[in-house]
Amino acid sequence: MRGAGFFAAVLLAVSSLSCVPAQAQTSASAGAAPSDIPEEGLWLSEEHDGLFSIEPCGHMLCGQLIGMAYDGAVPKDVWGRSQCGIRMLTDFVPIEDRKWQGHILDPRTGRVYQARIWVSEPNVLKLRGFVLGMPLLGETQTWTRYAGPPVGPQCKLPKDAH
Fold first, then answer.
1. Which residues form the domain of 53?
2. Cys-Cys crosslink for 61: which of 31, 78, 92, 152, Cβ 3.0 to 4.6 Å?
C-alpha cells in the first residue's frame, strides 16, 4: 500500500471479494440494466477477481459480492464463514456531485472502512476507500460494469470474466 497499511487491507478486501450464490442472481445479471441510479447493477473489480451486485436497500445503496476468482475451497471470512453472500458495501447515502458515501467491510479482518462510490463515465464505477473521515487518506479503484457469463456454483467467477 502507498503509505498507509489500512487501505491496502481495503483494496485487498475488495480484491478478495465475497459473493452471493449464482441462484440468487436476478434479472440484473443481464448486466447493464438501465436505472435512475447509475451505480446500481453488477460491477467487476479492478483486478477482475470479484463481482459485486450494488442495489438499493431502503434509501441507501448496498453491495454484495456475487462472484470470486479462486482455486480450491470458497474463501472464508475472519469468523470462518464462507465469503459467499457477505454484504461488504453498506449504508451508502447520496452526497454531493452524484457520489455516495458509506462503508466497506474487509471480510478477512472484520474491519470496516469509509468509502465513496460514483460512476465517472458510462460503465465505469470508482470506489475510494479511506479512514478518519478524510478521502485524501485513501485510494481509488476503477470497476467496470459486468455483462459477462453467469457466476458458477459457490460464487465461482468464470475465468473469462471481463
1. 5-23+37-155
2. 92
Taking a C-beta distance cutoff of 8 angstroms, is the pair 63, 53 a contact? yes
Query: What letter represents residue 91's amino acid?
Result: D
N- to C-terminal Cα separation, the chain: 25
Which amino acid is present at 66? I
Number of domains in the chain: 1
Is 29 a domain residue? no
Quickly count: other Cβ atoms within 10 Å of residue 155's Cβ.
Answer: 27
Q: Summarize pLDDT for 13-71 with one digit per residue, the tens.
A: 444 443 333 333 333 333 444 468 999 999 999 999 999 999 999 999 999 999 999 99
CB neighbour list of residue 134: distance below 8 Å, 6 or more residues apart: none
Task: Supply the pTM of this predicted model.
Answer: 0.77
Q: Which amino acid is at 150?
A: P
Q: Is residue 52 part of a domain?
A: yes
49 close to 69: Cβ distance less than 8 angstroms: yes
CATH code, domain with 119: 2.40.128.520
In sequence order, what DSSP letters do the residues of 21-53 get, joined into one string? Answer: -GGG--GGGGS----SSTT-EEEE-TTSSEEEE
In-domain check, residue 32: no
DSSP lists the bridge partners of residue 51 as: 44, 67
